[in-house]
Amino acid sequence: MSELIVTFIYCLACLGLGHVCYFWLTTAYGKEFDGTSVSIRLAIRFLLGVLILNMLLTLLGLVGMLRPIPVISLMLAGFIAFFICGRCRIYLTLRSFLAWLDSWRSEPLLIKSTALLVFLVILGFGAGAVSFPPMGDAEAYYLTYAKVIASTGRLESMPGIYRPFSTIGMAAELHFAALIILQGVPAAKFFVWPIAIAAGILLCGIAEQAGAGRKGRLFALAILFSSNTFTNYIFDGKVDLIAAAYGLAALYIVVGGIDSLRVALLGLFVGAATVAKFSYLPTLSCAVAVLLWWQCSEGKWCLTQEAIKKLFSVAVQVAGWFLVAWMPQLLKNSILFSAPLAPFIGGEGINYLSQIWFDPSVTQRIVLTYPLALVFGRYPMQGGGLSLLMVAFLPLLFFYRKSSWKSFSPLFAITVAGIAATIFWVAIRPSVIAPRYFLAPLFLLIPVIAIAAENAWNRRSSKLVHFAIVSTIALAFVFPVYQLRGALLAIPNLLAEQKQPCIQASEYCAPLLQLNLVADKGDRVYFAGYYSYWLRPDLLQCVNAVDEMTDLEKSSNMLDALGTQGFRYIVIDRSSHPGIYRKLLESVAARADVKKLIGTINFEVYELPAPSSEARRCVEIRSGEWKLTPSTYE
Amino acid sequence: MKGRSSLLFSILIIAWMWATVVVSVFSMLSPAHWLISFLPVSFLEVQKAVAAFFSATASTSF
User: Fold this and answer.
1) pTM listed for this prediction
2) Among A165, A462, A544, beta carbon nearest to B10
3) In chain B, whose CA is at the least distance from the CA of A457?
4) C or N: which end of chain B has fewer Cβ atoms within 10 Å?
5) A457-473: per-residue pLDDT in tens?
6) How far does A297 lie from chain B, in Å, by closest CA?
7) What region, left, alpha or beta, does residue B41 occupy, with left being phi > 0 and alpha being psi -120 to 50 degrees?
8) Greatest extent of chain A over all pairs of C-alpha atoms, in Å
9) ipTM of the predicted structure?
């Protein structure tokens, strides 16, 4: 399966670039990470490589060179770096892995069964990542944008109604574009799976720093992969997990200590996480600040003069590396929007940073039901919640020894940081109940629960308690496994010669694919819907722009206005755009030359007469890149 | 006596764990269930919330 092979090689290229960056940093600072396991070292180097490659792809995109040869060259460079830096470590890594596998023999059968279950579920999500089509926001924006970039070879603002939104950070879209160029969308979607695994490894590392043994780390992994606020984003094509992985890397590093190398990595990963998801700016910064305070005060939580000086010095260094990670974002927005600090300062459209999702009564209910709302909440746009194991294992906190709760302990610091970040988010955005907006700091609450379960296992020899813990974990996986049943249906399709692209896809898929067969190159589509992913790349590049919508709003005759703007087809989602639909129906009734091509439950597609030569046209200026010409009507 | 209280404690913990599973299943299958008072949001509120969120990106004021 070419998707898996291409993504695997791409990941090795990221690892290679990460090795090079890490080698440069260790040479510059004269020290290495100490006491970390092989898996943690691999995860950190991999994420470093993802960051570096993203920077390089951004530069390529801004100069319009995101084409197959430059992308393959970058990948080859990374792969060669992996081979040079990593070849002597491959044998050691394999040997460590086999020894680790062998060490599981001594574990009880129930623990081995749990580990096997977790492993199979993780594999299942990998299958989902490659076989499910894009969904939700990925279908509206993230993969659609990546598809356009892959076609044009150029990083420009997103065509259509989401143009103002393309001021956001692009942590994954360029990777998606590169993988689409190399293989296709399945390879791009599959790339999120190794990112999720890296996040899992780093969470286990944080749990280990907090005092978790093998069982505790296994329970932490079980909690992570049964939290659908994490697992939903492994297979839907969104980019949230990259921010989570970067954030967890930053948190792992800061818990481990602060020396010059760690501070550099901390700054890079905090910067990368906040670019990937702006909501990490307040939340991850809050968690990192708490942990830095704990580190600089040597666990005493007091602010002596020495501690303040150390904190200030570290903060300045972190800020410097933070800016390095932000450079591509600032450069991109400078060139595309003449506003480097957009959307914070400058940019276009509404300020989508100030979000209020619900009215005051619902907001009050959300706030009053924290933290249970994080687990059991099913609010619109919430995007899943934490695992039920977070609540199920709560009583096991009684099994903690008092000695575990010393204020200088990493477990205490991690838990305080997680609680502080959560409270901070609730304070600044009480109506925005969306764990994905602060996943990494939220996951700091997992180790305390996982270690509680481990303590209960170790201190209670009762088979009943052991069985209860394992059975609850198994029950927690029922819903994720149920979600993945679609992957079982989609995999044969993926392997088949004649693929049916709309298996498991949204209702936008079939009508838009039909339209792709009918529309000629250069035809314009007026798209009154949200999920345009399934349109051909050339059609995507010339969809209705924001200024054209304003003109349409002012016009008295919708169809004449659409003709002036050169539109040939109208796609309407009646459920989301009822106003446009009503206006269109009034105009269509009076026109015999407008044909209805496709009609489904919520969709209609109309064909307009061919536009005149004075109307706006969509022309191909270079292979795969289409641009709108101005109208000559006046 | 110690053994009995230990057994009772274990049973209580197990009951809590499985009750959590039951509540979680309820929350997925029946969002308006009376047990989950923090779940139900009226359809009108959903519409208002979605409209407010997408008002910047929606095409016009249609």
Assistant:
1) 0.92
2) A462
3) B10
4) N
5) 988 667 888 999 999 99
6) 38
7) beta
8) 86
9) 0.81
